[in-house]
């Protein structure tokens, strides 16, 4: 199988670990732009951006697991929910400080990631998607039943300690978290490991054939993805202040995460971010024009049209636009 | 005991009917059609609109629902599956988006409030302490008729055999002169019609509501996972396993854990036998 | 890319912000496509229309903006933020359901915008008012909380189910939700000692249950005299299956779907015989002249469903006027403490035939309700003992008859029909 060696070689040499100056400049511009946002936009918009940032974090997490390795997870809200519920239960029921509860939440979510990993060791493709959907559904059914004194049942847990107050602070926290996660994911994907994960998505057999342990690689991807989901979920829970099962273990949440990645562009770092901001702002901008249910209808329809037009997402649309512009100039 | 058997048979018949259309698409394209729940929902609502709001005969309502379901299946194949060239992941995601759009559409047209379908056949009989409505008996009988007809169609007709061939090996079928595109189209239409028919019965059991599409998808998912990509008979058997499991859990154990056991069964089967109880080994 | 969006959004936000400056801005939060949400919205619209026609409040006209939640928790948080930060409303009126209200509550605490909840009856929110009165100063709930609802139901058990029907034992069929658990707990604790009705068995069911036949079989096998159902989610499924299956056992309890006039149409008539407790003013509830005029005006103005406002429509109509009156007294909504004090003093007594019929007032801080022995600060005032001369009861029991009519069966002071078992129950 020359395929794998070739891909490894191409990705490694083409864009691989050799970080170039323009990468740093682009990242610096991006980070500076995001941090300047409170000077440019109103508080209402900042609030919307906070949601976009958290959705972007979940999207990046999903992309590491599914966008790269090709194991489509329909159970991602399960991981986000574990992170949120762990920190909520620890702080509200056992009086843990958030400094302790959030790291524990991340660890617990990583353990949750292993649960999702188990079926992935034996099955793939649509079957894997089905099982993860079942896991999420199981969680939704179990949360109200098992220890409602801890989980608060269907009414969830209220009055979580807030990390910050106000739109600006909430935004800075969310955007810093998102930028850190994005930068981490970007660096990770530049390593050989990232390339190998991507290769699994292309052809798992050939990766195995080339002597790499796919089990170990997959475990790694699942753990990283779960850690990010747990981290995002925990901070998100404290931002919301109240968590209920319907806000996490729900097919709508799944819809938003997956669509954010795919509308933006799977297998990239910027794609999930663009997708998350696009989807969150689209819904918010439609509000003054379509106050009722029409808003969700149009929102879904636009998502479907973009996806049908370019399944590789907005990133690919932009890229082809740039190529066309360049082509026009020369 | 007799009570459990009766109730189990009735519920399982319904589940088999619901899962059949989902299984067809899954076995032919290895595609999870998450918008399958939308056929069920739309079927139920169309029946409600025709027979309960416009007051047309029930048979016309039922035929209308099946026709709309089949057209939806056809349109989905034309407008989504074909342009995406059958890429399973892309089709899965687009059907998920479509399902959410359909949910909004139903809210816009019929409103948010749940609605109850009148019994298709009114009346009730008590058998060994259990009430059984004629409606549910009719639903179960109908689902058996539909399943047997489908079985006969797939086994007995040229198109049906071609569907089977495509489900086993798309390229091989093409070589032997079957047009996979045409077969796919037919399968999507049948699946849509079956979903809508199942929807009428499912809604007459439960209710019509904009969120009702999720539950049948989960049931279908459970049946397909446990059964594996297999025959109609396999789906039928697994529908009974799941239906009876549910009735037994509710009747003799803990009703609040109704769904939990189904999910545990799924996960258990997958760990023991990833290809499902009746599935073919996939390579 | 994001930068461009951001700038465009800020331009849009500035444009929006400059359009309305002098007016008093009211924000509605709730679903724009449910009967529940629309009841609150329309109640608020009508109150605003009347106030504006009479010259507005503090010389200013009132404007209304809406924020749809779609009954989604996260959308609810976004909707509240939108009202607070983009629209910068002075006052929020809410027709949210339980978990949606709980979702935006931390935002209300942060923004400190006076807010009136008209549908949610969750006692946990009132507990928060008790524990953190400063943080919860902007919050008022003008529907009796669920504990009070359940408590009056026990009297119904004693006065009607035991005394009139002669039933001595019950099997409880409750959904597996926090609401179901709370109501079940209260009912089982009190039914025995207060009403003398023995609880034979408690059956908890999953809200996604497709087929209720085995549950009804189980209930019948318990040997109890009647079923007490507690259902707030997918309630129509259990009630319609009860009717379709003609379960030969009486059933009463809480069934949230039966609270609106559309119940009969939505169930296609498969809902006769169902009885449920209902917040006031319920369907089938006789109205005092003021509320009757509200309904007449409502029906002249709106032709789509809900054809008759649900209880929260009345709460929104009267409650919004009270909030504005409080603002007038407190010099606006800006000083939350002053507004809170003025709002607590609001007291609207509506009479019918010379008897106190409805009272829109609030429990004060530290004021103990005698039957339940606890306080309900900033919660709608109710009365748990006959003859209900302090306020209206916390709820009434209504019953849908098999001919599609509906009426109040308890308390007797408010009753206009008698409780009866469905025709198929011997």
Question: Tags for this entry?
Answer:
heterotrimer, B: 283 residues, mainly alpha, two-stranded antiparallel ribbon, 11 helices, 2 strands, 74% helix, globular, C: 426 residues, alpha/beta, five-stranded parallel sheet, four-stranded parallel sheet, 16 strands, 41% helix, 19% strand
N-to-C SSE series of chain B?
HHHHEEHHHHHHH
Task: Return the structural class of chain B.
Answer: mainly alpha
What Rg of chain C do the Cα atoms give?
22 Å
Poorly predicted tracts of residues of chain B: none
What do the pLDDT scores of chain B average to? Answer: 85
Q: Give the beta-strand count of chain C.
A: 16
Q: Could you tell me the mean pLDDT of chain C?
A: 89
Biggest protein-protein interface? A-C, 53 and 48 residues
Individual helix count of chain B: 11
- Taken as a percent bin, the fraction of beta residues of chain B is under 5%
Q: Give the terminus-to-terminus CA distance of chain B.
A: 43 Å
Number of helices of chain C: 13
Order of helices and strands of chain C: HEHEHEHEHEHEHEHEHEHEHHHEEEEEE
Radius of gyration of chain B: 18 Å
Q: What overall geometry of chain C do the principal axes of the alpha carbons give?
A: globular
Characterize the quaternary organization of these chains: heterotrimer
Shape of chain B: globular
Strand order across the largest sheet of chain B? 1-2
Structural class of chain C: alpha/beta
Specify the helix fraction band of chain B.
over 70%
Largest sheet of chain C: 5 strands, parallel
